[in-house]
Amino acid sequence: MSSPVYRGRFAPSPTGALHFGSLAAAVASYADARSHSGEWLIRIEDVDETRNKAGAEQAILSDLRAFGMSPDQEPVRQSERGHLYQEALDRLIRSGAAYRCTCSRKAISAIARPGCEGFIYPGTCLNTPPPPDATAAWRFKVGGELIRFRDRIAGEVKQNLADEIGDFVIRRIDGYFAYQLAVVVDDQVQGISDVVRGADLLWSTPRQIALQGQLDYPTPRYAHIPLVMGRDGHKLSKRDNAYPVDTADPLSGLLAAWQHLGQEDAPASIGSCEAFWFWAVPHWNINRIPHDRNRRHEQPESL
Ligand code: GLU
Ligand code: ZN
């Protein structure tokens, strides 16, 4: 079977119930995939087992079904894919792009300068490798070049990883693979052409692109859904997004997510999720997603 031109995914972490922010991401990725006659997959991002909540995976999957979003394949779980992440890590090690690190957070914070996301690792263990038998994390050695990509919503995004992030952890000292490595391997192995997800991950994308480059993976297209203004003009905040969705009335949730995404009003005659999707897929327009131009330059002060 040849792979389709478009394959998207929704990748929830089972850390709690589906909330409004994740519903909006699911609706956007599903509508974008279906409007491209593409496939849509679900991946359970349970790689950090310390954060998983019992029952959350089943609750998310049944909520997505209630909203009328069915995947084209059985969902996969990151917790069952450690061998794939290990293979990628081995390749990075062999090519000299990864190194062991035993530094504690405290030791790093005492000497490092703050970056976009925490401290910029000063390369201590690159210069002085830890003893071979020490339990260690693995870090990815970033290059000095500017990483650029064109986000379908946010537009041109640029980041210099060496200046703004530093060498980042790809396997933690406790043995868990880091999100950045797992997501890159999964998007590649699953043949994802299009990533549509929340803007909280916009500044993870340059790290993912750097890993893809080192592993010779193609870079998917990206679209990051920003926080948008509600119709009443108030800014939807993390707090609003934390409201769990109500699956007793799934159509209202879909309509609210659709509105949050700036899409054309659905006809009032629509009375079921099925009817909604029948109408919504051909009406999806990613360019309508309200996007505050200034917001994409919003970066931590260090930049
Ligand atoms: N698992 C991440 C989350 O729930 C999403 C990761 C992604 O879409 O790349 O926020
Ligand atoms: Zn170190």
**Radius of gyration (Å):** 20 Å
What order do the strands of the largest sheet run in, or round the barrel if closed? 3-2-1-9-10
Distinct bound molecules: glutamic acid, zinc ion
Helix content: 25-40%
Total E-strand runs: 10
The assigned CATH architecture of the largest domain is: 3-Layer(aba) Sandwich
Name of the CATH first level of the largest domain: Alpha Beta
CATH topology descriptor of the largest domain: Rossmann fold
Kindly name the structural category: alpha/beta
Summarize the biggest pleated sheet: 5 strands, parallel
Q: pLDDT average, as an integer?
A: 91
> What is the beta-strand fraction?
15-25%
The H/E string reads: EHEHEHEHHEEEHEHEHEHHH
Overall outline: elongated
Q: Note the total helix count.
A: 11
Poorly predicted regions are 293-303
What can you tell me about this protein's structure?
With 303 residues, this protein is of the alpha/beta class. The chain has two domains: 7-79 and 191-200 and 218-298, Rossmann fold; 82-179, HUPs (Rossmann fold, 3-Layer(aba) Sandwich). 34% of the residues lie in helices and 15% in strands. It is built from eleven helices and ten strands. It has helices at residues 20-35, 56-66, 82-94, 105-111, 124-127, 161-164, 179-189, 205-214, 238-241, 250-260, 273-283; strands at 7-10, 39-44, 76-77, 98-101, 137-140, 146-151, 155-160, 168-171, 194-198, 221-225. The chain has a five-stranded parallel beta sheet with strand order 3-2-1-9-10. Strands 4-5-8 form a three-stranded antiparallel beta sheet. A two-stranded antiparallel ribbon has the order 6-7. Helix 1 (20-35) packs across helix 11. Mean pLDDT is 91; it is low at 293-303. Zinc ion (ZN) binds next to helix 5. Glutamic acid binds next to loops.
